[in-house]
Every structure is written in structure tokens, then in C-alpha cells.
Amino acid sequence: MNQPSKSEQHPQGSPEAHAFHGQLLRLYGGFERGVAAVLLLGMIVVICLAAWSFLRSTADAVMASDAILDYRAFQTLFDRVLAAVIALELAHSVHQMVTGKHGLAQVKTVIIIGILACVRKLILLEIDTSSGAFLLGLGGMIVALGAIYALVHWIEQRGFNLATHR
Fold it and tell me: pTM, whole model, 2 decimals?
């Protein structure tokens, strides 16, 4: 009489293969967290540079001889502050990777980064030199990101957990 093979005895694979798969996943998880930690250190430098750039631009605007802030200086200040905020949000997303907090919170952070990038683009936009198609595309992107954010928020409010639904 034929004996069943190991794969027939264990339809999901052998216990050794399952253990190896688990070890491989743990190893990759550690690798991912290590790379994210290095990225987080780099983000700290980027945040400091963005904050310094904002402070320097603010000091330049205050020290300017004329008391009225022209539109270009205003754009530059908002560009600098939004660059710092985007860097902070990106660092927050990387921090979530380091701590192993995956799921809807990380998705929301990435969506917020996209929204902030769109807002930054709107502030820096020269309306006179922008095409209608570009403006329509930017508007569509903002509406889409807002809709995705609302959907993720709606899902989160209903207690959906990605970890239990994989």
C-alpha cells in the first residue's frame, strides 16, 4: 500500500517549511525595522534643515527694509513651513514602521502627506503660467485624496483592523 507523501499529510506544507517561513518573516521584519530606523535618523536631519530654512527665511523677511511682506516672500515662508510639516509627517510614517505599527494609521499618515504636498503645490503655483489641464489634475488629485481619507476614516470608525483581516 502506498504511503501518503508529506505534502498530503500536511496540506499546508511540512512543519519545517512552516517554521522556516516564520523565521524568514521575522528576519525580514527585523530588516525592515532596521532600515526604517536608519531612514528615521536621516529624516531627523531633513527636519532640522527644513526648520532651519524656515527660520532663516522668516528672519530675512523680518529684517527686510520694507515692512510689507510681498507675495514671493509669503510664498517662500509657506513653502518652508510646509516642507518641514511634510518632513515631520514622513518621519511619523517611518516611526510607525520602526515600531511595527502597520495598518490604517500608517495609511492615513501617507494620505495626509499627499494632501500636504498638494497644498504646498497650490501655494507655490503661478496661476498665470499653469494650464487648465494641470489645474484640473491637481484639483482631481485633491478630491481623490480627500475621498480616500474620508473612506479610511469611515473604516477606522467602524473598528476594522487590518491585522485580523489578512
Answer: 0.67
Cα separation, 31 vs 33, in Å, equals: 5
Rounded distance, CA 127 to CA 77, Å?
Answer: 18
Instruction: Report the C-alpha gap between 8 and 149 in whole angstroms.
Output: 46
Residue type, 142: I
DSSP string, 52-71: HHHHHHHHHHHHSSSSSPPH
Q: What are 49-82's pLDDT values in tens digits?
A: 989 988 998 888 888 766 677 777 788 888 888 8
Q: Characterise 103 by phi-psi region: left (phi > 0), alpha (psi -120 to 50), beta (else).
A: left
- Specify whether the CB–CB gap between 121 and 151 falls below 8 A: no
In angstroms, the CA 153 to CA 147 distance is: 10
Closest CA to 74 of 51, 52, 89, 54: 54
